[in-house]
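WARN retry 2 of 3 for item q-0093 after timeout on previous attempt; input resubmitted unchanged.
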Amino acid sequence: MNLFLSAIGLMMVFEGIPYFCFPEQVKAFARKVPEIPDGTLRVIGFCLMMAGLLVVYFGGGING
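OK item q-0093 returned
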């Protein structure tokens, strides 16, 4: 459970960085998101999930 909570906390930190550092660019990107086709967003999301799984796998988790 500690690892899960640490991962959630770290994810929140990384998610918050663009909002803190580049708020205007985040708003501009948010206005453009509805124009992106659903298929493209799904491919991007899938690629990000796979990249995250690879990082966790190669990172070795807690038993590295």
